[in-house]
Amino acid sequence: MCSELPPSPTAPVTKVEEHSDPTRVFNSDGVENSKLELSIVSKSEQIIGLEDVGVVSQEELRKIHRKIDKRILPWLCITYLVMRIDLNNITNAAIIDEERGDDIKTQLQLAAQDWAWAIACFYYPYGFLEPFSTLFIKSTTPSFWIGRIMVTWGIIVCCIATVQNYAGLISTRVLLGAAEAGYYPGVIYYLAFWFKPEELALRVAVFYSFGQVSGFVGGFLAFAVSFASGVLPGWRWLFLIEGIPAILMGLATFFILPDFPQTAKFLHDKEREVVIQRLSKNAPSKMAKTWDRRQVVKLFRDPTFWTFSATWFCHAIGGFGLSYVLPTVIYDLGFTTTALSNVLSMPPSLATFVLLNLLGWLVQMRKWNPYWVAIGLEIVNIICYVLLLTVNDVTIRYLALLVSTATAGSVYPILWPNRVKAAHGTTAAGIAIGITNALAQFSGILGPQVFLSVYGPTYKFSFLVCVGLLAGAVIFIAMSGALLAELGFQKTREINKQRGRG
């Protein structure tokens, strides 16, 4: 998951000295440490002198974080992969066995607008309930709430395989949205109880990238079940096969996932204290009260709340809207069969996985500015859409779809640590994360409307709308970074001043 340095028997011990600049770190001899090469540990982890637990070496801190990562991240990644498969299977089901007339649209007699609503209705309860469901992570326990979410969504996905008409499909999709609400923002919120925001970039990237692999796995499953039609049509098999693992893994989550650092039995007493005391006073904490009205009022008065929200909204439709109809768009580009179209929806997901992990590593380990990285991703996405608007060659159009899907899938996780950092307090963090992620659900509410099949096969209107929204996302990303003084201009000016004095 991440590179590691060989252990050093003489690893320097880090402590905090009383200097005016809290970001400067000094070793045991009083010499300033300018660069520390750690694995997944960021620069902020160098300040680890703690009053109650004594001085902790860099190597000890690395071991603690490695232990937490191994205990938490693999299970979260696997469960998120299953969650995204269940979320996206509706797009793969859209074209299974279409040539034979056994597809879901034909069997349930769905018009183009009916299908758009079948996709979109999921996101209304999902988005509305996200802030409340996210706070339930704190008011209950993460293992219970995340496990509960998985069990209920797995049961409902299996129920979708039994629907007989449009009303049944809408009902089950609405229930599925309510059941799944809070999973993804809940995980982001959960990680904030364990790590500083500066330490989340690579972790969120790894976690999120497994969700992108769902397109690869889902496309493969859709391709496989397209040959399984018999007693049941392929789309019904798809929902059954993908719902059962969620139920089983949800039950296992009750016992596997640790809750909070304060109750983590896999950590020793000293390790627990190190994790807890390293977090800032504004970080979410098990000991804080779940609801603090003053924090909520302060959150809504913060201009960054609105700029981050606008970023998530614009990118949701402009960047992510395409993903909900990707197999259909690929099919409309002229590829021969629906089975092949589901297969061709797999490489974009794999490309997202690779790009996202690379960028997460560069942001956290090489200190690339996440705001500039996100702006660059949006610009590349805009270029791809311009190609889709102007080029008719099918191969070039498919490659543009591949690149745009990869870049669009990388923007949110690159910005999430900064979104978390901008919220202060346990309640504020939960509400901010929940509302922000709720706005991302407009990708499913409006995305299918923007990419209605009536705009195919060229989808020129659709791509023009996306270009405009992505341009707006670039502006709001820059505004968020400027409001938090994190675009890097101030740091550059200080470096130039120091060089001038030299």
From TrEMBL:
* Membrane-related topology note: Multi-pass membrane protein
A Gene Ontology molecular function term for this protein is: transmembrane transporter activity
Name a GO CC annotation attached to this entry.
membrane
What keywords tag this UniProt record? Answer: Membrane, Transmembrane, Transmembrane helix, Transport
Top-level division of the source organism's lineage: Eukaryota
- What PROSITE patterns does the record tag this protein with? MFS
Q: Where in the cell is it found?
A: Membrane
TM stretches of this protein: 115-137, 149-168, 174-193, 205-228, 234-257, 303-326, 346-363, 370-390, 396-416, 428-455, 461-489
Q: Tell me which Pfam families the record gives.
A: MFS_1 (PF07690)
> Is Transmembrane helix among this UniProt entry's keywords?
yes
What SUPFAM superfamilies is this protein classified in? Answer: MFS general substrate transporter
Q: Where do Pro residues bias regions lie? A: 1-10
Segments of this protein annotated with the region Disordered:
1-26
Q: Which residues form the Major facilitator superfamily (MFS) profile domain?
A: 72-483
Q: Coiled-coil segments, which residues?
A: none
What's the main place this protein lives? membrane
InterPro entries cross-referenced by the UniProt entry: MFS, MFS_dom, MFS_trans_sf
UniProt KW Transmembrane keyword? yes
Name under which the protein is recorded = Major facilitator superfamily domain-containing protein
Organism of origin: Lentinula guzmanii
Q: What is the lineage of its organism?
A: Eukaryota, Fungi, Dikarya, Basidiomycota, Agaricomycotina
